[in-house]
Specification:
Order of helices and strands: HHHEHEEE
CATH class: Alpha Beta
CATH architecture: 3-Layer(aba) Sandwich
CATH superfamily: NAD(P)-binding Rossmann-like Domain
Oligomer: single chain
Strand order of the largest sheet: 1-4
Radius of gyration: 16 Å
Shape: globular
CATH topology: Rossmann fold
Number of strands: 4
Distance between the termini: 27 Å
Number of domains: 1
Structural class: alpha+beta
């Protein structure tokens, strides 16, 4: 990977334009656990909605690899520390739940268990036959 990195807010059409110019956008999630309990729908709409939009656009452009920035909040209150990666995902906050949802969507995509609808081309993608998706979720701790 090379090139420049830019930080900006963008919508569906702006993401299409960026990808068309060979610039890969990274969706920025809201990330305050406490705030997510006060405005959960805002967190679900932004964090899960933006992830789905980005994956749909990636599918439109044949981009099938993603590094997903997740969080240790997906574990909720862990039974032991340090937390083994095999610990069950059981988020306590809406923020953590959005991370679990996004990881689940990406996992389904990589294993061919997901439909994606492209608004740009009005096609429904069934990805069972397309095993080209690859992803990694990086779970960050404080």
């Amino acid at each position: 990977m090379g090139g420049n990195s830019y930080c900006c807010e963008f919508g569906w059409h702006q993401m299409n334009k960026l990808i068309d110019q060979s610039i890969t956008p990274v969706s920025q999630a809201y990330k305050a656990v406490g705030e997510s309990t006060e405005i959960p729908l805002t967190y679900y709409a932004n964090n899960v909605g933006a992830t789905v939009s980005l994956l749909q656009i990636m599918a439109d452009y044949g981009c099938s690899r993603i590094v997903y920035s997740s969080s240790a909040t997906v574990y909720g209150t862990p039974p032991i520390i340090p937390i083994p990666e095999t610990t069950r995902l059981q988020a306590d906050s809406p923020y953590g739940k959005t991370k679990v949802m996004a990881e689940t969507i990406i996992d389904d995509l990589c294993h061919g268990r997901l439909f994606l609808f492209s608004l740009e081309s009005s096609h429904l993608y069934w990805l069972l036959a397309d095993k080209t998706w690859r992803a990694i979720s990086l779970r960050y701790f404080k």
